[in-house]
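Now for my pick.
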Amino acid sequence: MPETVRDDLTVGGWKSLVFEPFRTGVTIHWISRFEGERPGTALLKYEAGAAVPRHRHPGLETILVLDGSQSDEDGRYFAGTFVVNAPGSEHSVWSEDGCVVLIQWDRPVEILEE
């Protein structure tokens, strides 16, 4: 039996989930929180124009854009795009039109500038 199940995420199943504040304009629904060596997995929902400041990834980060688009310094990623950010990589993230992403971090990010 799986530890957790979230149904139909790629077709809007996230719309019925409860999100909590994460950063200004960004909310989070935790699927699994960091615990020991266990990675954190969550859904992030960005309002149009929301951003996360420049940060570093001490571990691997993977993102699947489920709705809308998310951008960083390397491009704009639309629904269906899978992004991998290597350990040690840095970027800032924003969404012009709002988005929902499924994200997994090996380790919590380090915010570099507010």
About this structure: The chain has a mean pLDDT of 94.
